[in-house]
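re: ur question from yesterday

yeah so i grabbed the chain u mentioned. its 637 aa long if i counted rite. heres the sequnce exactly as i have it in my notes:
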Amino acid sequence: MSKDELIKLLIKNNAKGYEVGGYVRDFIDNEINGSNRISKDRDYVITGLSISEFEKIFDGAQKIGTEAQIVENGIQQTERTPVYLVDIDDEKCEVALARNEVKIKDGYSGFAFSYDKETTIEEDLKRRDFTINAMARELETGEIIDPFNGREDIKNKQIRGIFVKEERDIENEIKYDEINKEFILKKESETYVCLLPQDPLRALRAARFSSQMDYHIEDKTRLALSYLDNEMDTIHPSRKFNETRKALISNRPDRYIEELSKMGLLEKIMPEVDVLRGLEQNVIYHPEGDVFEHTKQVMLAASILTKENFPGDIERLEKNTLAGSLHDVGKKVTQTYNEEKQTFQYIMHEIEGVPLVEERIKEWNIESWSEQLKTVTEKHMFMHNDLEKVNMNKVSTFLTGSATRKMINEDKKIDIKQRLVMKDELKNCKSVEEIKELILAKETYNKKNKMKPKLMMKFAEELKERTITTKQFEESEDPKELLIQKSLNEKELEKWAFIEKKKGLKDKMDIEDFIVLCAADGLGRLKEKEKSIDVFKEAAKILKEPKIDQKKVDIWKDKYNLEDKYVKDFETLLKNRNLFNTILQKEKEIVPKVDEGMLRELGKKEDEIALLKSENKQRLLVGSIKKERLSSKENSI
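ran it thru and got these C-alpha coordinates back, copy pasting raw so excuse formatting
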Protein backbone atom coordinates (compact mmCIF):
# COMPACT_ATOMS: atom_id res chain seq x y z
CA MET A 1 0.00 0.00 0.00
CA SER A 2 1.05 3.62 -0.39
CA LYS A 3 1.58 5.94 2.57
CA ASP A 4 -1.62 7.80 1.66
CA GLU A 5 -3.57 4.53 1.72
CA LEU A 6 -2.05 3.73 5.12
CA ILE A 7 -3.16 7.11 6.49
CA LYS A 8 -6.74 6.63 5.20
CA LEU A 9 -6.89 3.13 6.68
CA LEU A 10 -5.77 4.39 10.08
CA ILE A 11 -8.21 7.31 10.07
CA LYS A 12 -11.02 4.90 9.18
CA ASN A 13 -10.19 2.85 12.29
CA ASN A 14 -9.72 5.83 14.63
CA ALA A 15 -5.97 5.23 14.85
CA LYS A 16 -2.87 7.33 14.18
CA GLY A 17 0.45 6.54 12.57
CA TYR A 18 3.85 8.10 13.12
CA GLU A 19 7.30 7.89 11.57
CA VAL A 20 9.82 7.35 14.36
CA GLY A 21 13.45 6.60 15.14
CA GLY A 22 16.47 7.22 12.94
CA TYR A 23 14.48 8.44 9.96
CA VAL A 24 13.03 11.38 11.89
CA ARG A 25 16.33 12.08 13.65
CA ASP A 26 18.24 12.19 10.35
CA PHE A 27 15.52 14.27 8.69
CA ILE A 28 15.88 16.95 11.38
CA ASP A 29 19.70 16.66 11.43
CA ASN A 30 19.78 17.29 7.68
CA GLU A 31 17.41 20.22 8.09
CA ILE A 32 19.39 21.87 10.91
CA ASN A 33 23.01 20.83 10.28
CA GLY A 34 22.96 20.01 6.56
CA SER A 35 24.38 16.56 7.30
CA ASN A 36 22.99 14.84 4.19
CA ARG A 37 22.32 11.66 6.12
CA ILE A 38 20.37 8.96 4.30
CA SER A 39 18.25 6.64 6.43
CA LYS A 40 17.91 3.20 4.92
CA ASP A 41 14.69 2.25 6.71
CA ARG A 42 11.49 3.91 7.83
CA ASP A 43 9.94 2.70 11.07
CA TYR A 44 6.37 3.40 12.14
CA VAL A 45 4.40 3.35 15.40
CA ILE A 46 0.61 2.98 15.50
CA THR A 47 -1.58 4.23 18.35
CA GLY A 48 -5.26 3.58 18.97
CA LEU A 49 -5.29 -0.13 18.06
CA SER A 50 -5.05 -3.30 20.12
CA ILE A 51 -2.92 -6.22 18.94
CA SER A 52 -5.96 -8.16 17.72
CA GLU A 53 -7.42 -5.13 15.94
CA PHE A 54 -4.14 -4.43 14.15
CA GLU A 55 -3.77 -8.03 12.98
CA LYS A 56 -7.35 -8.01 11.70
CA ILE A 57 -6.88 -4.77 9.74
CA PHE A 58 -3.38 -5.65 8.45
CA ASP A 59 -4.03 -9.32 7.89
CA GLY A 60 -1.07 -9.69 5.49
CA ALA A 61 1.48 -8.24 7.92
CA GLN A 62 4.38 -10.51 8.93
CA LYS A 63 5.00 -10.60 12.68
CA ILE A 64 8.76 -10.31 13.34
CA GLY A 65 8.94 -9.32 17.02
CA THR A 66 11.09 -11.25 19.48
CA GLU A 67 9.71 -13.32 22.33
CA ALA A 68 9.13 -11.35 25.53
CA GLN A 69 6.79 -10.94 28.47
CA ILE A 70 3.72 -9.23 27.01
CA VAL A 71 0.96 -7.63 29.06
CA GLU A 72 -2.33 -6.95 27.26
CA ASN A 73 -5.60 -6.17 29.01
CA GLY A 74 -3.99 -7.02 32.35
CA ILE A 75 -2.91 -10.52 31.22
CA GLN A 76 0.83 -11.36 31.11
CA GLN A 77 2.16 -14.10 28.88
CA THR A 78 5.24 -14.97 26.81
CA GLU A 79 4.79 -14.25 23.14
CA ARG A 80 6.31 -12.30 20.30
CA THR A 81 6.17 -8.52 20.52
CA PRO A 82 3.75 -6.85 18.07
CA VAL A 83 6.28 -5.66 15.53
CA TYR A 84 5.37 -6.33 11.89
CA LEU A 85 6.68 -6.00 8.37
CA VAL A 86 4.25 -4.09 6.17
CA ASP A 87 4.64 -3.10 2.51
CA ILE A 88 4.53 0.71 2.34
CA ASP A 89 5.46 2.45 -0.91
CA ASP A 90 7.00 -0.77 -2.20
CA GLU A 91 9.30 -1.11 0.82
CA LYS A 92 9.23 -3.58 3.71
CA CYS A 93 8.81 -1.32 6.74
CA GLU A 94 8.73 -2.12 10.45
CA VAL A 95 5.43 -1.17 12.05
CA ALA A 96 4.98 -1.51 15.83
CA LEU A 97 2.22 -0.74 18.26
CA ALA A 98 2.85 1.93 20.90
CA ARG A 99 4.00 0.37 24.15
CA ASN A 100 5.14 0.87 27.72
CA GLU A 101 7.84 -1.23 29.37
CA VAL A 102 9.14 -2.19 32.80
CA LYS A 103 12.46 -3.76 33.86
CA ILE A 104 11.92 -7.25 35.31
CA LYS A 105 15.44 -8.80 35.28
CA ASP A 106 19.06 -8.07 34.42
CA GLY A 107 20.29 -7.76 30.85
CA TYR A 108 19.26 -5.94 27.73
CA SER A 109 16.34 -8.36 27.21
CA GLY A 110 15.05 -8.19 30.77
CA PHE A 111 11.89 -6.15 30.07
CA ALA A 112 8.16 -6.76 30.08
CA PHE A 113 6.03 -4.78 27.61
CA SER A 114 2.47 -3.62 27.96
CA TYR A 115 0.26 -2.85 24.97
CA ASP A 116 -2.91 -0.86 25.30
CA LYS A 117 -4.81 0.97 22.59
CA GLU A 118 -4.90 3.97 24.91
CA THR A 119 -1.08 4.25 24.99
CA THR A 120 -0.06 7.60 23.53
CA ILE A 121 2.87 8.37 21.24
CA GLU A 122 4.43 10.45 24.05
CA GLU A 123 4.36 7.42 26.37
CA ASP A 124 5.96 5.31 23.67
CA LEU A 125 8.70 7.87 23.06
CA LYS A 126 9.42 8.10 26.79
CA ARG A 127 10.80 4.54 26.82
CA ARG A 128 13.40 5.26 24.13
CA ASP A 129 17.09 5.77 24.82
CA PHE A 130 18.07 9.30 23.81
CA THR A 131 16.23 12.50 23.08
CA ILE A 132 17.42 12.56 19.46
CA ASN A 133 15.67 9.20 18.96
CA ALA A 134 12.55 10.17 20.91
CA MET A 135 10.85 12.22 18.21
CA ALA A 136 8.02 11.29 15.87
CA ARG A 137 6.36 12.77 12.80
CA GLU A 138 2.61 12.30 12.48
CA LEU A 139 1.74 10.84 9.10
CA GLU A 140 -1.47 12.79 8.55
CA THR A 141 -0.29 16.29 9.51
CA GLY A 142 3.52 16.09 9.32
CA GLU A 143 3.70 17.53 12.85
CA ILE A 144 6.93 16.75 14.75
CA ILE A 145 6.27 15.35 18.21
CA ASP A 146 9.28 16.25 20.38
CA PRO A 147 8.48 15.94 24.10
CA PHE A 148 12.13 15.89 25.28
CA ASN A 149 13.70 18.63 23.14
CA GLY A 150 15.55 16.30 20.81
CA ARG A 151 15.65 18.98 18.12
CA GLU A 152 17.65 21.25 20.43
CA ASP A 153 20.12 18.45 21.15
CA ILE A 154 20.55 17.83 17.43
CA LYS A 155 21.28 21.53 16.99
CA ASN A 156 23.93 21.28 19.73
CA LYS A 157 25.22 17.96 18.35
CA GLN A 158 24.61 16.35 21.69
CA ILE A 159 23.55 12.87 22.82
CA ARG A 160 21.40 13.17 25.92
CA GLY A 161 19.38 10.56 27.76
CA ILE A 162 15.69 10.94 28.51
CA PHE A 163 15.14 12.40 31.98
CA VAL A 164 11.47 12.24 33.04
CA LYS A 165 10.22 14.55 35.78
CA GLU A 166 8.94 12.60 38.78
CA GLU A 167 8.23 13.21 42.43
CA ARG A 168 11.22 11.72 44.26
CA ASP A 169 12.78 12.64 47.56
CA ILE A 170 16.58 12.55 47.40
CA GLU A 171 19.14 14.34 49.54
CA ASN A 172 21.97 14.70 47.07
CA GLU A 173 22.06 16.06 43.54
CA ILE A 174 22.60 12.58 42.11
CA LYS A 175 21.43 9.15 43.22
CA TYR A 176 21.61 5.71 41.66
CA ASP A 177 18.84 3.28 42.60
CA GLU A 178 20.61 -0.06 42.27
CA ILE A 179 17.46 -2.12 42.81
CA ASN A 180 15.38 -0.46 40.09
CA LYS A 181 18.46 0.56 38.07
CA GLU A 182 17.39 4.18 37.87
CA PHE A 183 19.59 7.25 37.69
CA ILE A 184 17.96 10.09 39.62
CA LEU A 185 18.97 13.69 39.14
CA LYS A 186 17.93 16.63 41.30
CA LYS A 187 17.95 19.93 39.43
CA GLU A 188 16.96 22.99 41.45
CA SER A 189 13.71 21.96 43.14
CA GLU A 190 12.70 19.27 40.64
CA THR A 191 13.68 15.62 40.32
CA TYR A 192 14.26 13.71 37.09
CA VAL A 193 14.59 9.96 36.51
CA CYS A 194 16.66 8.40 33.74
CA LEU A 195 16.26 4.72 32.85
CA LEU A 196 19.43 4.35 30.76
CA PRO A 197 21.08 2.06 33.36
CA GLN A 198 18.40 -0.56 32.70
CA ASP A 199 19.71 -1.54 29.27
CA PRO A 200 23.46 -2.11 28.72
CA LEU A 201 23.13 -1.92 24.94
CA ARG A 202 22.34 1.76 25.34
CA ALA A 203 25.95 2.45 26.36
CA LEU A 204 27.21 0.88 23.15
CA ARG A 205 24.57 2.74 21.14
CA ALA A 206 25.55 6.07 22.72
CA ALA A 207 29.22 5.51 21.82
CA ARG A 208 28.22 4.37 18.33
CA PHE A 209 25.99 7.38 17.71
CA SER A 210 28.84 9.60 18.85
CA SER A 211 31.14 7.99 16.28
CA GLN A 212 28.57 7.97 13.48
CA MET A 213 27.21 11.49 13.97
CA ASP A 214 30.28 13.14 15.50
CA TYR A 215 28.17 14.21 18.50
CA HIS A 216 29.40 14.51 22.07
CA ILE A 217 27.70 12.71 24.95
CA GLU A 218 26.22 15.00 27.58
CA ASP A 219 27.95 14.68 30.98
CA LYS A 220 25.01 13.49 33.08
CA THR A 221 24.06 11.00 30.38
CA ARG A 222 27.60 9.61 30.40
CA LEU A 223 27.45 9.35 34.18
CA ALA A 224 24.13 7.48 34.03
CA LEU A 225 25.58 5.04 31.50
CA SER A 226 28.65 4.44 33.65
CA TYR A 227 26.47 2.52 36.13
CA LEU A 228 26.03 -0.21 33.50
CA ASP A 229 29.41 -1.84 34.22
CA ASN A 230 27.89 -4.95 35.82
CA GLU A 231 25.16 -5.23 33.21
CA MET A 232 27.65 -5.22 30.33
CA ASP A 233 28.54 -8.85 31.03
CA THR A 234 25.00 -9.86 30.07
CA ILE A 235 25.58 -8.83 26.45
CA HIS A 236 26.65 -11.68 24.22
CA PRO A 237 30.03 -11.10 22.49
CA SER A 238 28.36 -11.23 19.08
CA ARG A 239 26.11 -8.30 20.05
CA LYS A 240 29.13 -6.36 21.30
CA PHE A 241 30.88 -6.95 18.00
CA ASN A 242 27.81 -6.03 15.93
CA GLU A 243 27.61 -2.63 17.64
CA THR A 244 31.38 -2.18 17.38
CA ARG A 245 31.55 -2.96 13.67
CA LYS A 246 28.97 -0.25 12.99
CA ALA A 247 31.30 2.19 14.71
CA LEU A 248 34.30 0.88 12.75
CA ILE A 249 32.80 2.16 9.49
CA SER A 250 31.67 5.49 10.93
CA ASN A 251 33.25 8.87 10.29
CA ARG A 252 34.83 8.98 13.76
CA PRO A 253 35.62 5.43 14.93
CA ASP A 254 38.05 6.88 17.47
CA ARG A 255 35.11 8.46 19.31
CA TYR A 256 33.68 5.00 19.98
CA ILE A 257 36.57 3.80 22.15
CA GLU A 258 37.04 7.28 23.62
CA GLU A 259 33.44 7.53 24.87
CA LEU A 260 33.34 3.96 26.19
CA SER A 261 36.57 4.64 28.03
CA LYS A 262 35.15 7.80 29.60
CA MET A 263 32.14 5.77 30.77
CA GLY A 264 34.52 3.22 32.30
CA LEU A 265 33.00 0.53 30.08
CA LEU A 266 35.68 -0.07 27.42
CA GLU A 267 37.23 -2.72 29.67
CA LYS A 268 34.02 -4.72 29.14
CA ILE A 269 34.31 -4.51 25.34
CA MET A 270 38.01 -4.31 24.45
CA PRO A 271 40.03 -4.58 27.67
CA GLU A 272 43.29 -4.93 25.76
CA VAL A 273 42.69 -1.44 24.31
CA ASP A 274 41.33 0.09 27.51
CA VAL A 275 44.60 -0.56 29.39
CA LEU A 276 46.54 1.55 26.88
CA ARG A 277 45.26 4.77 28.45
CA GLY A 278 47.99 6.40 30.50
CA LEU A 279 50.90 4.45 28.99
CA GLU A 280 53.52 7.13 28.42
CA GLN A 281 55.67 7.16 25.28
CA ASN A 282 58.92 8.72 24.18
CA VAL A 283 57.93 12.22 23.10
CA ILE A 284 60.59 12.21 20.40
CA TYR A 285 58.69 9.54 18.50
CA HIS A 286 55.22 10.10 19.95
CA PRO A 287 54.51 13.79 20.57
CA GLU A 288 50.76 13.04 20.39
CA GLY A 289 50.59 11.61 23.91
CA ASP A 290 49.99 8.22 25.47
CA VAL A 291 49.41 4.92 23.67
CA PHE A 292 45.64 5.32 23.87
CA GLU A 293 45.79 8.67 22.08
CA HIS A 294 48.06 7.14 19.46
CA THR A 295 45.62 4.25 19.00
CA LYS A 296 42.71 6.65 18.48
CA GLN A 297 44.64 8.58 15.86
CA VAL A 298 45.68 5.38 14.07
CA MET A 299 42.05 4.21 13.98
CA LEU A 300 40.96 7.52 12.49
CA ALA A 301 43.83 7.59 9.99
CA ALA A 302 43.20 3.97 8.95
CA SER A 303 39.53 4.78 8.38
CA ILE A 304 40.25 7.88 6.28
CA LEU A 305 43.02 6.25 4.22
CA THR A 306 40.87 3.19 3.52
CA LYS A 307 37.85 5.23 2.46
CA GLU A 308 39.98 7.29 0.10
CA ASN A 309 41.85 4.37 -1.44
CA PHE A 310 39.03 1.77 -1.42
CA PRO A 311 35.71 3.66 -1.51
CA GLY A 312 32.66 1.54 -0.78
CA ASP A 313 34.59 -1.51 0.47
CA ILE A 314 32.81 -1.93 3.81
CA GLU A 315 34.46 -5.13 5.05
CA ARG A 316 37.92 -3.80 4.22
CA LEU A 317 37.09 -0.66 6.18
CA GLU A 318 35.94 -2.72 9.17
CA LYS A 319 39.08 -4.86 9.18
CA ASN A 320 41.52 -2.01 8.70
CA THR A 321 39.98 0.16 11.40
CA LEU A 322 39.89 -2.73 13.85
CA ALA A 323 43.50 -3.62 12.98
CA GLY A 324 44.43 -0.02 13.75
CA SER A 325 42.83 -0.27 17.18
CA LEU A 326 44.72 -3.49 18.03
CA HIS A 327 48.18 -2.90 16.56
CA ASP A 328 49.80 -1.70 19.82
CA VAL A 329 47.96 -3.83 22.41
CA GLY A 330 51.24 -5.54 23.33
CA LYS A 331 52.60 -2.36 24.89
CA LYS A 332 50.88 -2.87 28.24
CA VAL A 333 52.61 -6.20 28.85
CA THR A 334 56.03 -5.05 27.62
CA GLN A 335 56.37 -1.68 29.35
CA THR A 336 59.76 -1.05 30.97
CA TYR A 337 61.58 2.11 31.96
CA ASN A 338 64.90 3.06 30.40
CA GLU A 339 66.86 4.89 33.09
CA GLU A 340 69.51 6.10 30.67
CA LYS A 341 67.02 7.66 28.26
CA GLN A 342 64.59 8.59 31.02
CA THR A 343 61.60 7.23 29.11
CA PHE A 344 59.33 4.21 28.89
CA GLN A 345 59.98 1.63 26.22
CA TYR A 346 58.02 -1.30 24.80
CA ILE A 347 60.51 -3.80 23.42
CA MET A 348 58.93 -6.64 21.39
CA HIS A 349 55.44 -5.25 21.92
CA GLU A 350 54.53 -6.25 18.38
CA ILE A 351 55.23 -9.92 19.20
CA GLU A 352 53.57 -9.93 22.62
CA GLY A 353 50.49 -8.29 21.18
CA VAL A 354 49.63 -11.22 18.93
CA PRO A 355 48.16 -13.49 21.68
CA LEU A 356 45.93 -10.60 22.80
CA VAL A 357 44.72 -10.15 19.24
CA GLU A 358 44.04 -13.88 19.04
CA GLU A 359 41.85 -13.61 22.15
CA ARG A 360 39.86 -10.77 20.56
CA ILE A 361 39.43 -12.81 17.36
CA LYS A 362 38.20 -15.82 19.32
CA GLU A 363 35.77 -13.89 21.50
CA TRP A 364 34.20 -12.08 18.57
CA ASN A 365 34.32 -15.13 16.31
CA ILE A 366 36.06 -13.34 13.44
CA GLU A 367 38.43 -16.09 12.31
CA SER A 368 38.20 -14.92 8.70
CA TRP A 369 39.97 -11.71 9.77
CA SER A 370 42.58 -13.53 11.82
CA GLU A 371 45.52 -13.52 9.41
CA GLN A 372 45.35 -9.78 8.73
CA LEU A 373 44.80 -8.68 12.33
CA LYS A 374 47.69 -10.79 13.63
CA THR A 375 50.02 -9.87 10.76
CA VAL A 376 49.51 -6.12 11.20
CA THR A 377 50.15 -6.38 14.93
CA GLU A 378 53.26 -8.52 14.52
CA LYS A 379 54.83 -6.82 11.49
CA HIS A 380 53.94 -3.13 11.61
CA MET A 381 57.33 -2.14 13.07
CA PHE A 382 59.12 -3.45 9.98
CA MET A 383 57.93 -0.47 7.94
CA HIS A 384 59.50 2.09 10.26
CA ASN A 385 62.83 1.23 8.63
CA ASP A 386 64.12 2.64 5.36
CA LEU A 387 64.01 -0.66 3.50
CA GLU A 388 66.43 0.59 0.86
CA LYS A 389 69.10 0.25 3.57
CA VAL A 390 67.97 -3.20 4.75
CA ASN A 391 69.41 -6.50 3.51
CA MET A 392 67.47 -7.22 0.33
CA ASN A 393 67.10 -10.92 1.13
CA LYS A 394 65.34 -9.93 4.37
CA VAL A 395 63.01 -7.54 2.56
CA SER A 396 62.20 -10.06 -0.16
CA THR A 397 61.58 -12.81 2.38
CA PHE A 398 59.33 -10.52 4.40
CA LEU A 399 57.25 -9.67 1.36
CA THR A 400 57.16 -12.81 -0.78
CA GLY A 401 57.94 -15.48 1.79
CA SER A 402 60.73 -18.01 1.72
CA ALA A 403 61.41 -21.56 0.67
CA THR A 404 64.45 -22.30 2.79
CA ARG A 405 66.57 -25.39 2.23
CA LYS A 406 67.14 -27.03 5.60
CA MET A 407 68.67 -30.30 6.71
CA ILE A 408 65.93 -32.38 8.24
CA ASN A 409 66.54 -32.89 11.92
CA GLU A 410 65.45 -35.73 14.14
CA ASP A 411 62.22 -33.97 15.03
CA LYS A 412 61.32 -34.13 11.35
CA LYS A 413 62.26 -37.82 11.38
CA ILE A 414 65.17 -37.79 8.91
CA ASP A 415 68.62 -36.22 9.29
CA ILE A 416 70.49 -35.68 6.03
CA LYS A 417 73.79 -34.98 7.77
CA GLN A 418 73.61 -38.30 9.55
CA ARG A 419 73.00 -40.01 6.24
CA LEU A 420 76.20 -38.50 4.89
CA VAL A 421 78.12 -39.70 7.96
CA MET A 422 77.10 -43.25 7.06
CA LYS A 423 78.16 -42.86 3.46
CA ASP A 424 81.34 -44.94 3.72
CA GLU A 425 79.63 -47.83 5.45
CA LEU A 426 76.80 -47.79 2.94
CA LYS A 427 79.21 -47.91 0.02
CA ASN A 428 80.09 -51.44 1.03
CA CYS A 429 76.48 -52.58 0.82
CA LYS A 430 75.36 -54.32 -2.38
CA SER A 431 71.64 -54.17 -1.77
CA VAL A 432 68.91 -52.62 0.30
CA GLU A 433 68.85 -55.77 2.44
CA GLU A 434 72.51 -55.29 3.34
CA ILE A 435 71.77 -51.69 4.28
CA LYS A 436 69.12 -52.96 6.70
CA GLU A 437 71.58 -55.43 8.22
CA LEU A 438 74.15 -52.67 8.68
CA ILE A 439 71.61 -50.49 10.39
CA LEU A 440 70.56 -53.20 12.80
CA ALA A 441 74.17 -54.03 13.64
CA LYS A 442 75.27 -50.47 14.43
CA GLU A 443 73.75 -50.02 17.90
CA THR A 444 76.88 -48.40 19.33
CA TYR A 445 77.07 -46.11 16.35
CA ASN A 446 73.40 -45.28 16.74
CA LYS A 447 73.81 -44.20 20.35
CA LYS A 448 76.92 -42.19 19.66
CA ASN A 449 75.46 -40.34 16.69
CA LYS A 450 71.93 -40.12 18.11
CA MET A 451 70.37 -41.74 15.10
CA LYS A 452 67.67 -44.15 16.12
CA PRO A 453 67.32 -47.51 14.34
CA LYS A 454 63.80 -46.64 13.26
CA LEU A 455 65.03 -43.53 11.51
CA MET A 456 67.82 -45.43 9.81
CA MET A 457 65.36 -48.09 8.69
CA LYS A 458 63.14 -45.34 7.32
CA PHE A 459 66.11 -44.08 5.33
CA ALA A 460 66.65 -47.55 3.88
CA GLU A 461 63.00 -47.91 2.95
CA GLU A 462 62.97 -44.50 1.25
CA LEU A 463 66.08 -45.43 -0.68
CA LYS A 464 64.51 -48.67 -1.79
CA GLU A 465 61.24 -46.96 -2.78
CA ARG A 466 63.01 -44.35 -4.89
CA THR A 467 65.29 -46.72 -6.72
CA ILE A 468 62.54 -49.23 -7.44
CA THR A 469 60.21 -46.44 -8.61
CA THR A 470 62.71 -45.34 -11.25
CA LYS A 471 63.55 -48.99 -12.05
CA GLN A 472 67.21 -48.02 -11.93
CA PHE A 473 68.15 -50.25 -9.01
CA GLU A 474 66.79 -53.48 -10.52
CA GLU A 475 67.96 -52.88 -14.09
CA SER A 476 71.52 -51.77 -13.36
CA GLU A 477 74.33 -54.26 -13.97
CA ASP A 478 76.10 -52.82 -10.96
CA PRO A 479 73.52 -52.07 -8.24
CA LYS A 480 76.24 -51.06 -5.80
CA GLU A 481 77.62 -48.38 -8.12
CA LEU A 482 74.13 -47.09 -8.90
CA LEU A 483 73.39 -46.94 -5.19
CA ILE A 484 76.43 -44.76 -4.64
CA GLN A 485 76.16 -42.55 -7.73
CA LYS A 486 72.41 -42.06 -8.00
CA SER A 487 71.27 -42.14 -4.40
CA LEU A 488 74.10 -41.34 -2.05
CA ASN A 489 76.21 -38.64 -3.70
CA GLU A 490 76.16 -35.44 -1.69
CA LYS A 491 74.55 -33.33 -4.41
CA GLU A 492 71.65 -35.73 -4.68
CA LEU A 493 71.29 -36.02 -0.92
CA GLU A 494 71.06 -32.24 -0.74
CA LYS A 495 67.96 -32.45 -2.90
CA TRP A 496 66.49 -34.64 -0.22
CA ALA A 497 66.83 -31.80 2.23
CA PHE A 498 63.67 -30.38 3.74
CA ILE A 499 62.43 -27.22 1.96
CA GLU A 500 60.64 -25.15 4.57
CA LYS A 501 58.03 -22.79 3.12
CA LYS A 502 57.19 -19.71 5.14
CA LYS A 503 54.41 -17.36 4.15
CA GLY A 504 55.32 -13.87 3.09
CA LEU A 505 53.26 -10.77 3.72
CA LYS A 506 51.50 -11.12 0.36
CA ASP A 507 50.32 -14.62 1.37
CA LYS A 508 48.74 -13.33 4.57
CA MET A 509 46.95 -10.15 3.56
CA ASP A 510 46.50 -7.57 0.84
CA ILE A 511 49.73 -5.58 0.53
CA GLU A 512 47.79 -2.36 -0.01
CA ASP A 513 46.00 -2.85 3.31
CA PHE A 514 49.33 -3.31 5.04
CA ILE A 515 50.64 -0.10 3.45
CA VAL A 516 47.50 1.77 4.54
CA LEU A 517 47.80 0.54 8.13
CA CYS A 518 51.52 1.25 8.42
CA ALA A 519 50.87 4.72 6.99
CA ALA A 520 48.14 5.17 9.61
CA ASP A 521 50.59 4.08 12.33
CA GLY A 522 53.04 6.74 11.20
CA LEU A 523 50.40 9.44 10.75
CA GLY A 524 48.84 8.75 14.15
CA ARG A 525 51.53 10.79 15.91
CA LEU A 526 50.09 14.23 15.40
CA LYS A 527 50.67 16.67 18.24
CA GLU A 528 47.99 19.10 17.03
CA LYS A 529 45.04 16.71 17.31
CA GLU A 530 42.48 19.28 16.19
CA LYS A 531 43.78 19.21 12.62
CA SER A 532 44.10 15.41 12.39
CA ILE A 533 41.17 14.85 10.01
CA ASP A 534 42.43 17.40 7.47
CA VAL A 535 46.02 16.15 7.70
CA PHE A 536 44.94 12.53 7.25
CA LYS A 537 42.69 13.35 4.29
CA GLU A 538 45.53 15.11 2.47
CA ALA A 539 47.88 12.22 3.25
CA ALA A 540 45.29 9.80 1.84
CA LYS A 541 45.34 11.65 -1.48
CA ILE A 542 49.15 11.54 -1.59
CA LEU A 543 49.13 7.81 -0.79
CA LYS A 544 46.65 7.22 -3.59
CA GLU A 545 49.19 8.39 -6.18
CA PRO A 546 51.03 5.43 -7.80
CA LYS A 547 54.40 7.13 -7.28
CA ILE A 548 55.78 9.66 -4.83
CA ASP A 549 54.71 13.17 -5.76
CA GLN A 550 57.26 15.23 -3.83
CA LYS A 551 55.57 18.48 -4.75
CA LYS A 552 52.33 17.38 -3.10
CA VAL A 553 54.24 16.18 -0.05
CA ASP A 554 55.91 19.59 0.31
CA ILE A 555 52.58 21.42 -0.08
CA TRP A 556 51.05 19.12 2.56
CA LYS A 557 53.92 19.85 4.95
CA ASP A 558 53.73 23.62 4.53
CA LYS A 559 49.93 23.81 4.59
CA TYR A 560 49.68 22.18 8.02
CA ASN A 561 53.08 23.26 9.35
CA LEU A 562 54.09 19.64 9.93
CA GLU A 563 57.33 18.70 11.69
CA ASP A 564 60.23 17.43 9.58
CA LYS A 565 60.33 14.04 11.34
CA TYR A 566 56.60 13.53 10.87
CA VAL A 567 56.89 14.16 7.13
CA LYS A 568 60.11 12.13 6.82
CA ASP A 569 58.42 9.07 8.35
CA PHE A 570 55.60 9.33 5.82
CA GLU A 571 58.08 9.75 2.96
CA THR A 572 59.91 6.61 4.13
CA LEU A 573 56.62 4.73 4.00
CA LEU A 574 56.05 5.92 0.43
CA LYS A 575 59.57 4.82 -0.58
CA ASN A 576 59.02 1.42 1.02
CA ARG A 577 55.75 1.04 -0.87
CA ASN A 578 57.54 1.71 -4.15
CA LEU A 579 60.19 -0.87 -3.27
CA PHE A 580 57.45 -3.41 -2.51
CA ASN A 581 55.86 -2.73 -5.87
CA THR A 582 59.22 -3.22 -7.61
CA ILE A 583 59.82 -6.55 -5.87
CA LEU A 584 56.31 -7.82 -6.63
CA GLN A 585 56.61 -6.82 -10.29
CA LYS A 586 59.97 -8.57 -10.66
CA GLU A 587 58.59 -11.66 -8.95
CA LYS A 588 55.95 -11.93 -11.68
CA GLU A 589 58.61 -11.74 -14.39
CA ILE A 590 61.09 -14.28 -12.98
CA VAL A 591 60.85 -17.87 -14.18
CA PRO A 592 62.48 -20.43 -11.84
CA LYS A 593 65.30 -22.54 -13.29
CA VAL A 594 64.44 -26.03 -12.07
CA ASP A 595 64.55 -29.27 -14.05
CA GLU A 596 61.10 -30.57 -13.16
CA GLY A 597 61.50 -33.69 -15.28
CA MET A 598 64.67 -34.72 -13.47
CA LEU A 599 63.05 -34.11 -10.10
CA ARG A 600 60.06 -36.26 -11.01
CA GLU A 601 62.42 -38.98 -12.22
CA LEU A 602 64.09 -38.87 -8.83
CA GLY A 603 60.72 -39.46 -7.18
CA LYS A 604 59.97 -35.92 -6.05
CA LYS A 605 56.32 -35.18 -5.37
CA GLU A 606 54.58 -32.17 -6.90
CA ASP A 607 54.47 -30.21 -3.64
CA GLU A 608 58.21 -30.75 -3.18
CA ILE A 609 58.89 -29.56 -6.72
CA ALA A 610 56.77 -26.45 -6.08
CA LEU A 611 58.84 -25.65 -3.00
CA LEU A 612 62.11 -26.11 -4.87
CA LYS A 613 60.86 -23.77 -7.60
CA SER A 614 59.84 -21.24 -4.97
CA GLU A 615 63.27 -21.39 -3.33
CA ASN A 616 65.02 -20.96 -6.67
CA LYS A 617 62.74 -18.10 -7.65
CA GLN A 618 63.45 -16.31 -4.39
CA ARG A 619 67.23 -16.51 -4.95
CA LEU A 620 66.86 -15.22 -8.51
CA LEU A 621 64.61 -12.40 -7.29
CA VAL A 622 67.05 -11.22 -4.63
CA GLY A 623 69.93 -11.47 -7.08
CA SER A 624 68.04 -9.42 -9.66
CA ILE A 625 67.21 -6.63 -7.19
CA LYS A 626 70.77 -6.54 -5.83
CA LYS A 627 72.12 -6.30 -9.37
CA GLU A 628 69.71 -3.47 -10.18
CA ARG A 629 70.60 -1.66 -6.96
CA LEU A 630 74.34 -2.00 -7.70
CA SER A 631 73.83 -0.72 -11.23
CA SER A 632 71.88 2.25 -9.87
CA LYS A 633 74.70 3.12 -7.47
CA GLU A 634 77.34 2.89 -10.23
CA ASN A 635 75.30 5.19 -12.46
CA SER A 636 74.91 7.72 -9.67
CA ILE A 637 78.70 7.72 -9.17
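noticed a couple things. Residues 606-636 form the longest helix (31 residues). also The chain is about 50% helix and 15% strand.
anyway ttyl
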